[in-house]
Specification:
The protein is an all-alpha fold. It has helices spanning 3-24, 27-42, 53-77, 80-87, 94-112, 116-126, 132-139, 143-166. Keywords: Sigma factor, Transcription, Transcription regulation.
Amino acid sequence: MPDGVESAFIRYYKELVLYLNRSLGDRQAAADVTQEAFLRLLDRKGDEHIEQPRAFLYRTAVNLSIDLHRRGRVRRTEELETLDREGCLDERCPQEAASQQQQLQLLQRALGELPEACRRAFVLRKVEGCSHVEIAQALGISRDMVEKHIVNAMKHCRLRLKAWDGQD
């Protein structure tokens, strides 16, 4: 993680989670949005210096929160039939099933490249739905380390999937 992003993470992570928790009313959603904001900071192209990293993170997080709210509102208003067609794979769409199976295999491959603690933290959070506190207890590490593992795992998987996708 670049020094500037790491120092921003240390300085602003908890503050941003608390702010988002107040507006979203969901600590886990706030943590997820905060992590995504930091990933956006990491994914920026070029070496362009950000004068106000705190402002950048807040603006990114607010925009992500708005997107999250909009998706939630749209999802609640869609008819059940539409959601059923979107959400299930069946024999009528074998290409989609094959594509998703391939993506899953690539994700498993990327996760396999991670250190054990990093992989376990990511799986416990994203697959099992455990809180950061529960993961910290299960792995015997600090909550801050759990958050760092999850951010690192997400970044690694995103980069590897992009790289492998470009090889097709």
